[in-house]
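Revision sheet: structure tokens.
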Amino acid sequence: MTRPRATYQLSSLDEAVEYVAVDGRCENTMAKQHWEEDAKNRFLQFLSTTANETWTALDQDVVVDPATNRNFDYRLGLGERRIALELFRLVKDEAELARDRVWSEVVHALERELTQRSLKGYLLTTPSYFNAPKVKRQQFVKQLADRVEGVIASSPDADELNFDGFALKRIEGLERIACSSFGEGGAVNPAGIALAALEEKLPNKNNQLAVEGHERVILVVNWTAFLVDPGDVVEAATQIDFARFPNIDRIFFEFTPGDIRLVFDRSVFAAYDKKSSVPDDLEPLYVQSLGFRIARHEPKAFQLIRKITEERGTALWLPANSRIEVVRYGRELVQSGDWDDVGWIVRTFEDDPDPSNNINDPAEKCNYHDQIARGEMVNFIVTVRGHLSWLLQLIVAANKRDLYQHTFEIVERYALSPNLYIRQQATIPLIEFAKRRFTDLIDSSLSDGIRTLTLRMARENASYPPILEGVANVVARMPDLTPSEAEEVLRIFLDMPSREAPQLLSFLLISYAVFRQRETRFGTFDAKNFASLLLNQVVHGIPAIRSSILWRIHGILGERPAEATTLLPYAAAFASGAYDRNAFFHFYNIAASFIGTYPDLLAPALKNAFCRERDYSKSNDHQFIWAFDRQPWTALLRLRSSGRDEDFLDCIEIVLEYGANIFNFPPGGLSEALGQIGSPRAGRLIEQARRLVAYLHWIARGCPLWQADVDWAWAEQQLPAS
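Predicted:
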């Protein structure tokens, strides 16, 4: 759940009607409603607790304009001091609250059900409401859980899945499936809800508080099922021109009953409006509002932050989230070429304590260092120095040669940091440096430093695959490694590959095994060990690497067919390895494209592939071979067109041994192809194919194929050839 739901409800339909003035006249002259009295009493208690002042309610519905009977809710007094208090609720209507309650109940039940099924690691985005009557709600939840489980099982490697108005997004390290919702217009925007309410209410409230000799205060009571929090209201207030509302001095927001926060103070906001004014005492509201303004990248906010930071000698007066926003603002400054301010940001935040270099710091709420140490991927930009790494990348990419030396010194410190998350982020600017090593922007000393640092990062992070993935990206831009250096780092990468690493590793394997030796400007390169390494990985590597190698080979051959004699032997060797559905898909693509031209090489490989597929399907109950009628059948037709009839029959004989585990059978043209060959063997295979087709139809009439549990040998005896 992204936010907790309300635990109290409206007591009656009457209480859902806002107490407002229409056409300047009060339409409701009844006694104060319960919620108003309760809110006023809680505000008095708040003043007593926070200011140690005992205020009392002197009057209610105090008229400020007799002609229209316009009034404010309560006059409070303490000695000679007066407060004019006006209330309003941030409230949804009854129907919206009811829909929220149904959504909350369904989602809580769904999260429990998915947890019981041991499903985790995804954010499930749902529609903003469910039409599920209470008597059918349990059944609805179980059906929805079945759907979610099925979608995940059908695409276990996908990072994002969409179905029936729902969306699943993989979140590494999340120990459950968490739910959130989207409204009709996209993601719910709590600050936008608060802003809309303030813009609607403040003009009238400003008129109701037109009274002298009082501090004019608004108390906003939260009835939005806790969707809006105090920070959201402060953020909304920073977007309003309060010069339009001169009668409002302060606004308080009651998040939960009794939890009252100051969200607007005219004196605090006025300090921001005076461009050169910096208050001596940085009140929390000033700092908070400044944070929201820099998050919107207001130039004035940045200049004030720079001025205050220079006066104080530190930026730590800002909370970490606001310091992050200053660094993020630096990206805009890079684009506009404001290098003085960019340099100031880098110098100010390069040694920021977020994240801590004390990797055992208990104050770290979400320790990304530990996640990386456990081998978990952290694919988001967080912390001040994490964001600064991406700003450094932009500086390098902007070719600011005069900033390179200082930038590299920071990258080097980050690369050797005790904090593994910062090491990971250091690879981002390091990639840009590696791209420019052989340009006039990088002198020989800096070039050697980049090379040395990259090798050191590979060696010192051999146990941390998430970091190695970034280092591999750097190595991919370094064609001048010696054979021994290249083999060393490649073996490090292959020893513990991350989930995202295979595409990079397949690139490096093929580059070093095939293409690097052709690049002569960096000296001779012995590729023999790399050829053996590529062969080993395409046959025995993890499925993702094998699949990526074949995908890359197919892509290269599509652009450069002349490389076939060099690369196809690796594809042919692949078929002697274990079966994997994704990898075999890429193999059949290659076979379909090139078996007609290279039958001597690929025909034995195709037979090997079918044998592996047959053995896999028979050793794994109910594992089906899908889409035989597509690329595998295309490869077989092109094999026969090359004049290799016996090889074609060998393959058909193997495929028929799949039995009930084959899907999409028979392919169009099978009988015609066998009939054209006309040999006794081809005739026998036609009869065998007919028996298989008859059997598949028999199974289909009885029950779904994947539920069948029939002895194939017995079934074949019961269905003699026609």
